[in-house]
Write the structure tokens for this entry.
Amino acid sequence: MKVVVTGTRGIPNIMGGVETHCEKLFPRIAAMGYDVTVIRRKNYVREETPLTEWQGVKIIDIDAPKSKKFEAIIHTFRAINKAKSLGADLIHIHTIGPNLLAPYARLRGLRVVMTHHGPDYDRDKWGKVAKMMLKLGEQFGCRFANQVIVISDVIKTLIAKKCGRKKNVTLIYNGVTQPEICAFPEYFSELGIEEGKYILGMCRFVPEKNLHHLVDAFLLLKKSGRIHEDMRLVLAGDTDFEDEYSRCLKMRAKENDVVLTGFIKGKKLHSLLTNASCYCLPSSHEGLPIALLEAMSYNIPVVASDIPANLEIGLDESCYFPCGNIEMLANRLEEMIHISQKPLYDMHRYNWDIIAKQTNEVYDKAVYS
């Protein structure tokens, strides 16, 4: 079966939860004998010599304007046309926005699988028109896709209620790989931090992730003397589109001695996850957060907002705080920093090998049913 993937910025080593999802999933699907092509957005490619193949996955780069409003939809249109020219049996469209073109893909004779990663119209960065288009993309994807994959039960319930989609919907969770436990003293020295003496925030610098709440809570703990003076806050990540929010966040971080790493992967990221005193995700919107699952895989204490997608993971009540409540976030962070024994999380649902097999079963239904 020939499968073409779009709706993602691309793989490998491109920032984003959907991008991490695709990076882990599609090499496994290719290894099962499927002919998989991921169509990347050329302006996110950073290799000196752009890839044409990676871990068994074919790579094609297509231009699209780097525009928050038009990039995804223009790229998806071009990707659908490319998929048709390649003789694809199926196009797998990730996220709801690009699924605005699911009807076009069907008109071109392609079978369509949609993965719904979450109601993106709830994100703070979008204006009224963009939110309307995202909702329309959700409706079109749910109506015209042959099969729909959802990454949480929250989303499955949502599309049944809002879109009336109850059949040919498969719940397949996000996954995590085995943790790479390591130390990187040189990198820690460069950042000016010590093992076990920092709180880690790891995500994109966008409003709905609420990293400014994490900074506020950390400063509250520092100013009140409730944590040791050598404890640091590390924010790992960046933004695709520099805007007022990301600029203000970075400025406030620098003014308060918060460590900014930028977008990191590999040993640098693994070492930060290995040695953090705790990880925090204070977001107001998620599908099923890979970053939180990654932190859990390292068995470090985690603190998360009490939004439905985070609650679905099923952490202990002591790990959650009311979204937006700075005082409660500070209390949770203080508790987690001082726990005496590392937690052990049940990660069996988040196995990428199982997820790949489940996805293949969806492909077979979409093409042969």
Remarks:
- The two ends are 14 Å apart (CA to CA).
- The mean pLDDT is 95.
- The chain has 13 helices and 14 strands.
